[in-house]
Amino acid sequence: MRIVRAIAPVMLMGLAVAASGCTSIREARGYIDDERLTGLVQPGIDNEQSVQSTLGRPTFTSQFGPETWYYVSSVTGRKPFVRPKIQTHSVLAVRFDSAGNVVAADRSGIDEVVYLTPDGDETPTLGRERTFLEDLFGNIGTVGAPGAAPAGGGGAGG
């Protein structure tokens, strides 16, 4: 009975440690979304400098079209040895006019995320498929064929 009383606390501690290993690990990725700060960006009042001083540098900016700054925030959760899954995702898009003033601040969430599934492990290309032997022996007979360049690199006065 003494042995059981001595082992019981050790077993409980071991069970608690084992159970804690199965808990979900949460990670914040990208911009840390703060509702108070993002709510301060107001169209017609703010400009690029005030937005940068309030929110910091954007995650990325637009390359085409009107100047737009994107602040991307994701929180992922995963169990040990399992691929992470997105729990929350938000994008704040701040658009500017040509003078650098805020025109709009739009927010989108995970409902607008598109999940793409690749079709196989090969990229389809135009043209015909060549076999290994065609790749290996394909140039035989084309060397010195009419219309081919001279072997010495060509050039007049050689």
Features:
5-stranded antiparallel sheet, 25% strand, 158 residues, alpha+beta, single chain, flat
Overall mean pLDDT: 79
Helical content stands at 10-25%
Topology pattern, helix = H, strand = E: HEHHEEEEH
Strand content: 15-25%
Q: Regarding quaternary structure, how should these chains be classified?
A: single chain
Separation of the first and last Cα atoms: 103 Å
Q: Which structural class do you get from the secondary structure elements? A: alpha+beta
Which runs of at least 5 residues are low in confidence (pLDDT < 50)?
none
Number of strand elements:
5
| Biggest pleated sheet | 5 strands, antiparallel
- Overall shape: it is flat
State Rg. 31 Å
Summed up, the helix count is 4
What would you note in describing this structure?
The structure is a single chain. The protein is an alpha+beta fold and 158 residues long. It is built from four helices and five strands. The longest helix has 19 residues.
